[in-house]
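Thread: magnesium ion complex, take 2
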Amino acid sequence: MPAHILVGTQWGDEGKGKATDLLADDVQYVVRYQGGNNAGHTIIVGDRTLKLHLVPSGVMYPHVTPVIGDGVVIDPGVLLEELDDLVDQGLDVSKLKISGNAHLIMPYHRELDRVTERFLGRQKLGTTKRGIGPTYADKAARVGLRVQDLYDMKIFRQKLDTVLKEKNAVLSRVYNRLPMKAADIETEYAVYAERLRPYIADTMALLHDALDRGETVLLEGAQGTLLDLDHGTYPFVTSSNPVAGGALTGSGLGPRHVERVIGITKAYVTRVGSGPFPTELRDETGERMTEVGQEYGTTTGRRRRVGWFDAVLARYAARVNGLTEHFLTKLDVLSAFSTLRVCHAYRYDDEEYEHFPPHQSIFHHAEPVYSELPGWGDDITQVTEYHLLPKEAQAYVDHLEELSGVPIRYVSVGPARSQTLERH
Ligand code: GDP
Ligand code: IMO
Ligand code: MG
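Output below.
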């Protein structure tokens, strides 16, 4: 009755979509447990590329039931568009299940995300402007609307009227925007309600029944450990809990079900949006890394910031998530460099930190301490067995494993499902 958790160990975009798709081959359920359409997960199988925002990455397999769990925030219009797209591409989405406890992203959440970012000026977070933060804020403030509210329009309207009074006051008086009309929102969401009705399920009960039958559930994280609201680089984080603990609250499973916690880890580091990034490269090497790795956002198209591998973060992610293994991605991108650097500690004020520093100011000013390793130069995208990788590439992987303290079980050498090498 195992559950497996798949979690990003950095600032997102580690390749969770590819890893989930690959590992979904022998599971029965794939569950998104937090985040919303701020996520962008890419899957490539054959000549087909899917960019998923809300639908779990197991959707390519007919034997997988994709589940959107309690902890997710759903923009229903966006979800329906994504489903239509998948159907147009010939995929069957009829097995999708959506939790009635998931919160709804409303038009005022999207608007507030945009105007508050503008208001913050130079302090802005660089959010995806999808309304994620304002929706989770309302959830915590207990004024959110949930998917289940769509199926009692009287309650939906009551809750909407109450919350909209406050939202409109803020939008018009603080941000000088036009107020929104409850009737328009109700009409729009009533249409979504009908279209989503076939997918709504008691997802928590469904997953427990599956585990009781001995089936396997894969919990697919969005974002990453350093974007976690509690454990990331606050305030430059998202508003949910991508870490392994969030997989439990976001799906309704308990810790005793979890057998594996797989950390998806890029062979270097990227970040979209604002916030500290000790190993960031702002030079030609960085530009090369961006281009070779095609580091442009799946959701917003923004250029991702790039930097050398950071083992301090890897160690931190191993602890916070209780990782049992790493899935290392994009090793092929490093073929472009003759010398590779790996950060094994930070220096600040004459002190060295092997572990994530306890105060934000130390992290903001941390100087990475690097070791250098020789590159391998050869194209490795066609390598089919781990032991056939150049010895320098194997030494690099060994080094990361030693520094992070968790076995690296998979090594990915290209975006396709087939470009994955199993190591142990
Ligand atoms: P996610 O948000 O963690 O699912 O990651 P994204 O899909 O946003 O970004 C990862 C990008 O890297 C996607 O374009 C993937 O197709 C691509 N990718 C994944 N694994 C590899 C790999 O091993 N090598 C290369 N070159 N690209 C990869
Ligand atoms: P996947 O699942 C990378 C970042 C945003 C911003 C911060 C807050 O594809 O890895 P938000 O809109 O969530 O309030 O923005 O979080 N961010 C991501 N960065 N990958 C993601 O998802 C992200 N989702 C949010 O860029 O810095
Ligand atoms: Mg992404």
